[in-house]
Amino acid sequence: MTATTLTLPSPAKLNLMLHILGRREDGYHELQTLFQFLDYGDELTFAVRDDGVIQLHTEFEGVPHDSNLIVRAAKKLQAQSGCSLGIDIWIDKILPMGGGIGGGSSNAATTLLGLNHLWQLGWDHDRLATLGLTLGADVPVFVRGHAAFAEGVGEKLTPEYPEEPWYVVLVPQVSVSTAEIFSDPLLTRNSPPIKVRPVPKGNSRNDCLPVVARRYPEVRNALNLLGKFTEAKLTGTGSCVFGGFPSKAEADKVSALLTETLTGFVAKGSNVSMLHRKLQSLL
Ligand SMILES: C[C@](O)(CO)[C@H](O)COP(=O)(O)OP(=O)(O)OC[C@H]1O[C@@H](n2ccc(N)nc2=O)[C@H](O)[C@@H]1O
Ligand SMILES: Nc1ncnc2c1ncn2[C@@H]1O[C@H](COP(=O)(O)OP(=O)(O)OP(=O)(O)O)[C@@H](O)[C@H]1O
């Protein structure tokens, strides 16, 4: 008998590099980016209900119930699968919103995979990723669960195997709107496509960084401070800034110094998402 309740992780991601190649007719941008997961994230708990109702019990400041990506993901999956079951959902939210570490997208993917399991739909990852893309450009990589080189708007994924260092992630206390950064006239949108894999060294820049740093002094400050210890990078459109270290001890040492004045955390990079490791252990 399949369980009717389930608790699953919803990990963060980093963009280890991000190049913008151009802008499409629909306003979305053609990207090349390298995604890696962190062993750090939110936790969602699901309990099946038989009346078809989808209810998220945790309140989010500034996000109405029906706009929450968790609820939108659940409703889409229910409608497209024709499932008559419903779900109660709770979330322990630790990922910052508008931090560029993919909180909302990851929550949507965890919901799709969790409900596919609990509702026994038997959808494969291709089908779930296609539905996920309609919720956000970053959802498919969380559905697939492997570090990946992404092209298109982020949906064409090729598995990658970057090193898995320990990261210090700084969380500047500003929420950056992805749409706002992508509509900035100063954004560089003409990076030449990378044609070889893995991404050659020297290509780790994030094309969004100059625009984000210009608009947000808090992000500039975080980049400068972390940059005293290692190469400091921006993930996605920010606000979070990260740098890799060969050991937890070194990352902890730098984090202890920086988190006296800034918010941040230490987490291990991971090429297989902790969500997929947990799901695998259930089979
Ligand atoms: C920047 C990244 O975080 C890199 O991982 C993602 O590409 C953004 O993914 P996301 O947050 O899931 O983005 P979405 O919710 O799909 O899009 C938010 C807004 O960002 C802009 N956007 C997003 C992705 C993309 N490739 N081009 C864009 O121009 C669009 O204006 C869109 O309205
Ligand atoms: N479950 C959710 N978790 C976080 N944000 C959500 C959620 N549902 C809806 N949102 C909305 O989506 C916006 C972007 O949230 P998210 O945490 O995904 O941003 P982000 O970290 O910049 O992500 P990305 O790296 O994908 O751009 C939030 O500001 C919020 O209004």
Automatic annotation (TrEMBL):
InterPro entries: GHMP_kinase_C_dom, GHMP_kinase_C_sf, GHMP_kinase_N_dom, IspE, Ribosomal_Su5_D2-typ_SF, Ribsml_uS5_D2-typ_fold_subgr. Gene3D superfamilies: 3.30.230.10, GHMP kinase, C-terminal domain. Residues 68-145 form the GHMP kinase N-terminal domain. It is an enzyme of class 2 (transferase). It comes from the Bacteria. Keywords: ATP-binding, Isoprene biosynthesis, Kinase, Nucleotide-binding, Transferase. Residues 208-256 form the GHMP kinase C-terminal domain. This is 4-diphosphocytidyl-2-C-methyl-D-erythritol kinase.
